[in-house]
């Protein structure tokens, strides 16, 4: 009898071990980046292990070791990874609904507001999740970027000062907005923007303080203009849909709650980063922060080029039977 009990106990332990899962998180972010994204990615993994009582864990594959930035959606969809950072603005044709913020710059929400809006839209409108499901993806959390202004190599105090400036551009809203300002949109990657500022290929780039410091743009551009662009939407914390559906109910509930808690933790870290950078700017980094007449920028929203971009998103949303009125109201001043 004792032997049978012993065998049963060993079998139970082995079965328990067999049920333990290690999920793979693929990210382009270097582990040592030390910014809000890197810190909270590790926080998510630690919390997942803690909240599942060590039954499950996440192994993070840092620095593009498994997939580069633009490869992550396909990598996740194929099941090579379970979790990953989908940089939504890079895939506007693949994920137009989930890129709503990218069609509405400037907009009035801060980082936390943008993240909460994405949570709300996913909860209220199944089309947002269906768009991801078509790529075998599921959103477990949202990582908005910080509120953006303009980092420039020369002082800019009004729209008149923007005439003829070369400004880094990407996505949908920024090219139209920059042209409406009387400036020239220049398409340059994030990685190439440092040299472009240094060599005067561009005069300004839309960015927030934390990212400006992270990419060291503030070494070569010393004027930060508080243009009220609002927060940009950055990343979906996505899962392979099959991996998500294969979780037991208890683990899935942990992930669902953790996704919301992640937004709060990430937003807190991001705010701390931005405040720290602004203090550094006052010191040895010597970046001058300049006010910009908010009314001037908001008036640009009426420009037909800016409105055409917004109408384009509305058409895409209505084509999928998404009620747009509440969404548009949240995105407009």
What does it look like?
- The protein is α/β, with parallel strands linked by helices and 333 residues long.
- The protein folds into two domains: 21-91 and 104-145 and 233-275, Bacterial extracellular solute-binding protein, family 7 (D-Maltodextrin-Binding Protein, domain 2), CATH 3.40.190; 147-231 and 277-331, 3-Layer(aba) Sandwich (D-Maltodextrin-Binding Protein, domain 2), CATH 3.40.190.
- The protein is 47% helix and 18% strand.
- The chain contains 14 helices and eleven strands.
- It has helices spanning 2-19, 36-51, 72-77, 111-124, 126-133, 159-162, 173-180, 193-198, 209-214, 241-246, 249-282, 294-299, 304-319, 325-331; strands at 21-26, 56-61, 83-87, 137-143, 147-152, 166-169, 184-187, 204-207, 223-231, 235-240, 288-291.
- The protein has a five-stranded mixed sheet with strand order 2-1-3-10-4.
- Helix 2 packs antiparallel against helix 11 (249-282), helix 4 (111-124) packs across helix 5 and helix 4 packs antiparallel against helix 11.
- The longest helix is centred in the last third of the chain and has 34 residues, at 249-282.
- The protein is globular, with a radius of gyration of 22 Å.
- The N and C termini lie far apart (75 Å).
- Mean pLDDT is 91; it is low at 1-19.
């Amino acid at each position: 009898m004792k032997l049978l009990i012993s065998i049963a106990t060993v079998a139970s332990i082995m079965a328990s071990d067999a049920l333990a899962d290690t999920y793979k998180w693929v990210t382009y972010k270097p582990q040592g980046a030390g910014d809000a994204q890197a810190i909270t990615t590790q926080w998510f993994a630690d919390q997942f292990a803690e909240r599942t009582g060590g039954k499950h864990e996440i192994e993070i594959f840092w620095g593009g070791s498994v997939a580069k930035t633009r490869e992550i959606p396909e990598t996740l969809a194929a099941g090579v990874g379970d979790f990953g950072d989908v940089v939504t603005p890079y895939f506007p044709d693949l994920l137009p609904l989930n890129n709503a913020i990218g069609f509405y710059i400037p907009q009035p929400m801060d980082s936390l507001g943008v993240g909460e809006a994405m949570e709300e839209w996913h909860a209220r409108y199944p089309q947002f999740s269906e768009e991801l499901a078509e790529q075998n993806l599921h959103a477990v959390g949202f990582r908005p970027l910080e509120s953006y202004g303009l980092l420039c190599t020369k002082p800019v105090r009004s729209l008149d000062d923007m005439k003829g400036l070369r400004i880094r551009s990407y996505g949908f809203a920024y090219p139209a907005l920059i042209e409406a300002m009387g400036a020239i949109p220049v398409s340059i990657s994030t990685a190439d923007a440092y040299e472009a500022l240094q060599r005067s290929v561009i005069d300004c780039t839309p960015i927030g303080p934390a990212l400006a410091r992270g990419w060291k743009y503030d070494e070569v551009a010393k004027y930060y203009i508080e243009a009220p662009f609002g927060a940009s939407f950055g990343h979906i914390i996505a899962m392979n849909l099959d991996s998500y559906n294969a979780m037991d109910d208890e683990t899935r509930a942990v992930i669902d709650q953790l996704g919301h808690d992640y937004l709060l933790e990430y937003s807190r870290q991001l705010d701390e980063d931005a405040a720290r950078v602004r203090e550094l700017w006052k010191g040895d980094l010597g970046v001058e922060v300049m006010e910009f007449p908010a009314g001037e920028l908001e008036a640009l929203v009426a420009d037909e080029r800016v409105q055409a971009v917004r109408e384009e998103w509305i058409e895409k949303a209505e084509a999928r039977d998404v009620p747009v009125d509440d969404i548009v109201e949240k995105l407009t001043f």
